[in-house]
Amino acid sequence: MNSSQHFLLSFATSIFVALAGSVGVILAQDWLIERDLPPYILALVAFIILHFTVRWYFSNFVRVKCPYGCGQKALPIRGRSDRFRCESCGQDF
Questions:
Q1: CB within 8 Å of 40: residues ≥ 6 apart
Q2: Residue 49 and residue 29: Cα distance in Å, rounded?
Q3: How far is CA 52 from CA 37, 47, 73, 85, in A?
Q4: What is the pLDDT of residues 3-22, one digit of tens each?
Q5: 10 Å Cβ neighbour count for 80?
Q6: Which of 74, 14, 2 is nearest to 50 (CA)?
Q7: For 6-65, how does the pLDDT look when each residue is reduced to its tens digit (9 = 90+)?
Q8: What's the whole-model pTM score?
């Protein structure tokens, strides 16, 4: 997987998972209202938490193949969006 595929997959997956979690909260709306909990605020909180949790998972555990031909995997550079460093050759891309 190259870096642009990694970014698109992580962003799309985080949005879909967050939407699924929010829809799950909205489907449990009757149960939440019975317990005096605000379902729309909880849906927003679930969306935010799930979105950032999936993005964190991708940035820490899904690696990118080095485009410089060394055949190793690269990890994201901390504090830089969509920038990676190869573990073997040390190239940034």
A1: 26
A2: 19
A3: 23, 9, 23, 22
A4: 788 889 989 999 999 999 99
A5: 10
A6: 14
A7: 889 989 999 999 999 999 999 999 999 999 999 999 999 999 999 999 998 988 888 888
A8: 0.80
